[in-house]
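Hi P.,

Sorry for the delay on this. The queue was packed all week, but I finally got your sequence through. Input first:
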Amino acid sequence: MQEEQEANMSKNKSNTEETYLFTKKNKVSIWVSNHLYADIPEDYFEENFSKNNARAKNTWSSNFKIRYFKPENMETNGSHEGLIGIKQAAGECSFSSSFIDALLSKAKKKNLLRVSWVVLLFEVEYTAKLSGVESDDYLTLLGAFNYDDDVDSVFEVEAKLTTNIANHEYSEP
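Then the structure:
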């Protein structure tokens, strides 16, 4: 009898566990991992869609108490073997470099400048203060950052800088 009551209490807790909506324009929330991509169970990112396929949920979002996310607002990137720089991993996922300096600062503080992969969730301002979850078995939250679509991507900025330097060098007598 006591086992049955405990099972019901556990079931009720899981049914009443709060999830949150963190939707906020011009924000990007970023999680990183140092686990090899091949070591992550396939079902971790397997999406369960709403009836109209506009929203999704998966093990990752459940672990971080995210009620749902819009798949078109999610980008992931990384390396199948080893670690890469966070700037490269995140920069290749975004058309804007507006958040890169703040991201690099936070990654340096958390000693996460080299990662195996990243998850960027745009139009979301995730906060561990509200959810109580900063990491799970595979991902660690770096934070939510301001995002501006009108700023060039990391690689466009670097390409322009390289071109300007090259032009300057060639214009010297």
